[in-house]
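Lecture 7 notes: from sequence to structure.
We start with the chain below.
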Amino acid sequence: MDKETEMSQVDAVSSYDRQSEAKEDSGHFEEVAPQRQTFAQKLKQHLRKWWWLHLILFIAITLLLVLLLVYVAFPKIAQNGIDDSSLLVTSIVLSNPSETAFHLHQVSTSLNDSPYHPHLDAFNASLALEGNNPYTYVTIPAIDAEANSTVIVDQDVAITDLKAFTDYNIALLQNEKINIAIQGSTSLHEMKFPTTTVNFNKVVTINGLNKLSGFNITSINILLKPLPDGTNMAGTVSIPNASPITFSMGNVIMDVLHDGTRIGTSTLPDLTLYPGENIVNTTSVVNQTTVLTLITTTYHDGMIPLDFVGTSSVFDGVHLTYFEEALKSVTQHVVLDAGKALSAIGLNITGS
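Predicted structure tokens for the same chain:
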């Protein structure tokens, strides 16, 4: 092959290459870049492939939330509902007392402002002066916790701690108000939720007897002929009871003192103190000679200041030491109008 022929072939090849490049430039062989998927498209494709896994996760999470609600959240909600409710004592009647027991009739009102109104099973609860040991245990009846529910305890109860019960009665007699702690636990039922256990811990404030403030002699009569037991005076006293409690105390005996010296005793037979004012019959054995001497030497108007201190409470032949200690802790200051009593029997030694 001569040189001229080789040059011709080279030119032909170059021409072919240029034509190919031109075709490529014209788009006949252009490759199209793949289009990027959006997030929604990717999510749709993922769910189409893994839908069964997401279903399992949804069921598992739902079940977990339900279990947390039923076994964690609901017991807490139930306990908070009990804690937020309140208990008001309407009346207490303490009757048939002995040294070891008494009958209790207590009416209370349970107030519940929660939208839930559960049922509480009956349960045992302790009663105690707040901060002290329990003095007894009672059975709280089943409660349907409506907005306003009446709770009645009516049963014989044992005094489980005599000192604690004595302290309770002393505090009740001495103070305007006292706090009673009521503690127990019970089962709570609400709709279809599982039964849960709740603690019933309440502190109830009630009025005390405030040292029997207002105690007063309302009438007095001198007996010209003493009775066989020595009684030489009889009359009535006013005993206020500011508490909601009715007490059966039996025969109560009080020392009568003047300036710290005992000059006689007064007996309040078969004493029952009701809430409010109590006009109570009393009989007394008083040293009348001492009374006359006080009038003629010191109290010429016949108005003699006296102190009354309870010393004994006997019910059905049994000393109730828890009442006796309470009575001993309080002194009643009164003024005896002896001149008026003497005038009623014809003795006017006051000159009035």
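Points to note: Residues 39-84 form the longest helix (46 residues). The CA atoms of residues 229 and 331 lie 25 Å apart.
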